Amino acid sequence: MTLHLLSADHRTQGLEAVARLGTVAAHAEPDLRRAVPGLDGVLILSTCNRVAIVLDAPDGRPVEALRDAVAAFLAECAGAGGPVPLSAWSGHAAHLELFATAAGLTSMVVGEREIAGQLRRALTSATAEGTATGAITRAVEHASAASRRVAVRTSLASTGCSVVSVALDLAASRMPPLDGASVLVVGTGAYAGAAVTALRERGASDIGVYSRSERAGPFAAGHAVRAVEEADLPGRLARADLIITCRGLGGPVLTRELLAPVVRRRRPAPPHVREKAGPLVVLDLALSRDVERAVGSLPGVELIDLPAVQRAVPDVEASQVGAARRIVAQEVASFERAQAGRRMDPVVRRLRSGVEGIVEEEVARMRTRDGAVDAEEAARALHHLAARLLHHPTVAVRRAGETGREQEYLEALDLVLGPEVAAGLRGGTEPPAVCPAREGGRAAQDQRSGGGPADLPSLPDPHAVVEAGARRPEPVATSEDLKQLGLPVLTGERA
Fold first, then answer.
1. 453 pLDDT exceeds 50?
2. For residues 436, 437, 439 and 444, what is the CA-based torsion angle, rounded to 10 degrees?
3. Are 40 and 57 in contact (CB under 8 A)?
4. Are residues 355 and 282 in the same domain?
5. Residue 405 exposure: Cα atoms within 13 Å on the Cβ side
6. How many other CB atoms are found less than 10 A from the CB of residue 464?
7. Can you tell me the distance from the alpha carbon of 442 to that of 433, in angstroms, rounded to the nearest whole number?
8. Are residues 83 and 139 in the same domain?
């Protein structure tokens, strides 16, 4: 399988295109997977900066064809205009772009930390929709870990910059100090939560939240703010110094018609006829506008939208961005090595299954006495198990010697057993006359007489073990003894 990444973002397609796609892309994973044949997995990340789509598709599927099919699907869902041209990456390039996105390197505010949480929530949503494959899950989890390493190893996150923080700094420059301001937050999503946190960090305490949904109450309780009912909205607007909107549901919630009476009440006048004097700052953080453009023309209103925030984003130190990209490249290499290793998972499963089958056969052969296995029987079973496991490696090493491929065999031992174990098996002496897998006294006699391969691990003499066990008054292994040997406890007699 191959991962692909398609996106429209603030850098290439612009915020208007992102807003257009964002209205239809959210929670569209199942429909997209059905609309584009051959897709195994889909994850959609929709933020104020971008719409990014991660696809898991069979190897050899051209990314260009996938891009065109996805763009056509989104255009049909939007119902207006032609397809938005999507940027596309595949394989290694897709991994780099995804990891860079998680680290905030492609965000409007470079290094912002909000994107990592948004990506994890997108994975949660795709998992709930049943469109997150194992490859997508592992990629997102590793990308999230890479973002944390970037945050720790560079100073990008230490500045505390985010879209919300830049927007609040811009708003604060146009109004009285926030520590005495009355603030109304419209919306209950992730950005609303980030806005409340940032407001508190700046000293704001008079914070209300309004939503047309039923989520205002739980949000207010969870963030220790006041929920504003529909009937109380005009009064709350009238005394607000700052309004922050972050719904992004495709239609304005604050219109000129709604705010015009509020603005008239805020004009300088005798105290008994007005609730508040001063500018009303309206901060629209929604990608698809929550505030009508005409609101900005009302007297006494300062309207700040995302394009204005984008223009106010401070430059980032190039050296820190370079350091972050090197970390991303390292993490991508680590992820790809792990993915390559997973191609051998079927072999690992078959290997374990085969060995477990042999163990079960030997367990079934063991005789029991009163629900226990005596020491002699346990020793016999263990040595027979070892002989069976060593049979094929022993045959192979002799064939390697016969065909002049000793070095290849020894190099293979490094891969199979590890260099530390393999080092003790090198050097070889004269090979044994009998394969250790043969049962009975022949193999044991070879070992007692000093024969046996020096380049293979030598097995203890089962007869010696039995004789040692025979000297015990009660040569019976208890259940605890078997547990220490890693053997299951059986009951009953062998058939």
1. no
2. 10
3. yes
4. no
5. 11
6. 13
7. 10
8. yes
Per the domain annotation, does 151 fall within a domain? yes
> What are 327's two structure tokens?
């970390």
pTM: 0.63
pLDDT the model gives residue 447:
42
Q: For residue 87, list its beta bridge partners.
A: 7
What percent of the chain stands above pLDDT 70?
A: 81
Within 10 angstroms of residue 162's Cβ, the number of other Cβ atoms is: 22
Q: Read off φ and ψ for residue 2, nearest 5 degrees.
A: -130, 135
Among candidate residues 185, 169, 177, the one with its CA nearest the CA of residue 224: 185
**Ranges assigned E (strand) in 277-381:** 280-284, 301-304, 373-374
Concatenated DSSP letters of 98-150: HHHHHTTTTSSSTT-SHHHHHHHHHHHHHHHHT---HHHHHHHHHHHHHHHHH
Distance CA 65, CA 57 (A): 12
Strand 41-46 versus strand 50-57 pairing type: antiparallel
Q: Are 236 and 274 in contact (CB under 8 A)?
A: no
CATH number of the domain encompassing residue 208: 3.40.50.720
Q: In this structure, is residue 320 part of a structural domain?
A: no
442: pLDDT confidence band, cut at 50, 70 and 90?
very low
Amino acid identity, position 52: A
Largest CA distance in the chain: 115
For 347-404, how does the pLDDT look when each residue is reduced to its tens digit (9 = 90+)? Answer: 777 777 778 888 888 788 787 777 787 888 888 888 888 888 878 888 888 888 888 8
**Residue 232 pLDDT more than 80?**
yes
Is residue 152 within a helix (H) or strand (E), and if so which, with residue range? helix 134-153
Q: State the residue range of the domain holding 453.
A: 345-485
Strands 182-186, 373-374: pairing is: unpaired
The verdict on 461 and 352 lying in the same domain is yes
Q: Is 179 in the same domain as 258?
A: yes
- Give the chain's domain count: 3
Q: Which of 130, 160, 190 is the last residue of a domain?
A: 160
Give per-residue pLDDT as tens, 465-483: 333 334 333 334 444 544 4
Q: Residue 335 domain-assigned?
A: no
Q: Are residues 460 and 349 in the same domain?
A: yes
What is residue 228's three-state secondary structure?
A: coil
Determine how β-strand 182-186 pairs with β-strand 242-245: parallel
136 part of a folded domain: yes
Report phi then psi at 112, rounded to 5.
-65, 145
Cross-strand bridge partners of residue 7 = 52, 87
From the list 286, 239, 234, the residue with the least C-alpha distance to 258 is 234
Q: What is the DSSP string of 399-417?
A: HHHHTT-HHHHHHHHHHHH
Tell me the residue type at 183.
V
Q: Any idea which residues carry the catalytic annotation? A: 48
Q: Extract the tokens encoding 476.
A: 């019976």
DSSP secondary structure code for residue 450 in this structure: T
